[in-house]
Structure prediction request, 963 residues.
Amino acid sequence: MIRRAFAIALITALGGCGDVELVNPAPTPTAPGAGPSDAGPSDAAAPPDQPAPKRTVEQRNPFGNVAETENLLWDGDFEWHSPFSDEYGWLSGPPYSYNFPNVRVGAECRSGLKCALVKKNKGIIGIGVSSQGNKLHASFWVHLAEGTCDQVVANVADMFDMVEPDAPVKPVSTTPDPTGWCHFDTIVDGREHKAFLFILNKTKGDVIVDDAVLKKSPNTKSLTVAAEPPTGEMAAVMEAAREDVKKLRGPHDAPPNEAKKALQKWRQR
Amino acid sequence: MRRRARALPFIGALVAGLVASAGARGGEFDSRGEYLPDPEAVHYDGFDVEPQRYVPDDTEAQCKLPMFTRGDQPSALDGTSDITVDTVSGCSERIVVDLPPTRDSYRTTVWMRHGGVDATLIVQYTPDSGLGQAQATLAPTGRTTSDGWVELASNELPVDGPSMERAFLRLTTFSHVAGVELDALEITRAGEFVEQRPCKGVGDPVCDAEEELCVANACRLGRTRVPPLPPDALRNEVVDMIESRLRVFYGGQRSREIYLPAALAEMELMRKATTAWQFWRHWVKGMHLLHDWHTHPSLRGFGGSSHRLNACFFEGDADLSHAAWPKDATYPDILVSHAGADGAAGLKAGDRLVAVDGIHPLPWAASLAGVNVGFHAATDPSNFADYAEELGGFTGLILRFATELTVIRCDAAAGTCNGLPETLQVVDLPGGGDSPDVACDNRPFYHYDAPNNPDPTNHYVFDTFFRGRVADTTDEEAIFGMTWDTLYGGGDPNGGVNKAISDAIADWKASARGVILDHRAGNGGTLDAPEGLTKLVRPEQPHAVTRMPMEIGGFDGPSDAAEGLAIFQKFKGKSPYTVGSDDHDPALPVALILHRDGSASDYLPYGMKGAPKVRLFGPHATAGAFSTYVEMFYWGGMSFQFASGDTIGFDGQALIGHGVIPDEVILPKQSDLLAGKDTLHEAALAWVRQELKP
Prediction:
């Protein structure tokens, strides 16, 4: 890992990526959404006198984590986001709406080519479906600029009907891995009401969220985290979010938004 | 780490294998990660010097200033400089490229980072060449670098170099903080040159059926509008993912039952595609086979027609011309509802369109699934209003896809129609003219005092509410009306739409003895607007429950009315479609005229129907689009949206795909149109007069 760390340091020193582009290593072969990866020479194989490469190259899947074909989130990998969308698969806030402006593109993402930037004290809500009769396996990745993994708060929530309790989704570790990523991975109870994945950034910096998956889990699997009553603060946060989300229910044939009008105009050129 | 240890000397072969189907590739990287441009590239720009811009003469002022800066950048992909592009909203930047004056075919690549770029290579030809603009969109190949660079590439684009006037890369940026860096713009030879060829209409064998579409009388290469073919190793997973989005999230009870299987079967054909267009055209057709009012794919357009058909069509009863051309056993007749002052091939209200390319216009329009990328259909299979409405106009189906149209012209003064049909060739229709392009709103006439009507020369209703006292009625009758298309309340009770509705209701309660609502081009909106309008006519009650977007993955809907009723009972306090108000006016007759109405414009008649003093007038059921939708945008202008969810009525019926059937099913009559009468309005007015509020 020494050489890889050096390569990252070199790239950063070269000033290639401003403050929002977090130089992450090429995803490992197990990282979903990444195709076969290449990289610079490994610690074991590199000749001792060979300079570190300027950059490494990898092949990603531009459609993202397609291996999770049964993802119950509309667009867990953010690959189908556009600023021109009226009804995207994620909401951002508060206040929560279909306006979802902060998508990032490129190597800073864990899988595929797009991921979401969530500013401090802001949240995103992934729109999904429930899996009647099955437990749910919720997972996603967060890249921290600072702080600990448990400063990102997440739950599987019933935002519409407000019948089923919020189920927390916890990080595997409170400490990010060496590349800055936190993995959240939890099995929660099955749900009969529409499922949303709520992610709130309580760190003191921006975070990148990517590769969110909500999928059926066999009922034989044990719950990873027991449901727990929300803190007073979180209860208030969720209540306010639900009020926003409730307004979005039903058909929504919006007249073209300004971005879409601009796009249409641009297309006519 | 072993795989990584294989390192860069092997990367080229590995990646080349993954994207081989995309054609020739651009440059490679050496073992130090330095970019090596393809030595055989016909154009390469590492932005070591300022690139030349192209600014069209008609560019708006805010788009004229340069929208990029060139600067030193140690981590540029190639060399030590690149450009940073930051386009103004509604504008695009254009970077000139040099292509040889030969007939050849090219693939374009460019690298970007710190944001997204929508990029298109455009080639324009000299006016005397007679050639249309050629263009190819770029999409990611998946090749990325650890310092943030992402490769975009086009499919192969044939270029007729000797006739070329200019070529440029058009750019618009998104999802960035301070601009998007671009570097290593490279154009390499790839594919075979294909000459632009005129064609007569869809199905013309002059076009390559596997790779081209005949659109607006030219063969158009499908691959220029779609992303590269996903590499072999990923293709099945991409298909799995696309299909799963539909299996999990698409539609409601009826639309899943009667449309989803055929759509998925079509998409299965994507797996065996060998070219980009073969792959994506099956996706396009699969989306069309979902046959839903909220559902369609979208690709960048192929360009318009140089001809003009400035006339609008709708379904009707050609009662004066059945002797010349009998009525179809399945489909209603198609009549001209209104036409512009010129550019309409001489067609006028009441003339009849009997055939397009030799068959009835409605099945002809239906046959364009998989051909007309913008194909649009009602969810209710008995509703053809969208097909009819889209036949005419400057972007209409006839101009873009037909070879010929057959009409029967009528004489309004004599009140008769020709005994012989007349066939017109689309290529013979003249272009140009001074009159505005008419909008098609299914309203042959307007019925208020002139200042309150939409402009009858263009029919531009759009987002405006028009209200007034109905013409040819008396002060004592006090019959008022409203003509409008949008129900987008947007959750704001004081917003333009909801305020217009609440103001109208207040006025009518105060002074009207009858109301005629003309909503014949109902574009939908949000539930609050139809809920608001129903407050005029009935007591408050939960009328249905919305279960949308899809709540339970892959839910096929309630199995019977009893299960539906249980859902209604369970959620009527959670997600109701609430109609009415205890403050409604039980004595005021309200007629609602319908024609092409979907989504919130389905909920409106659903919420009105059955109220004691309400009557619906229309030619058929509404679109049955009782859901919301999901939008997914990919790169290069490719996107799709699809319906998700359903609505369960108070009687337990799942509503999607079941349009609201008017109380009085009436088709516009040809004889009325020639006489200057609006059949549906006349019927509505007659009923209101019978029912006037005391």
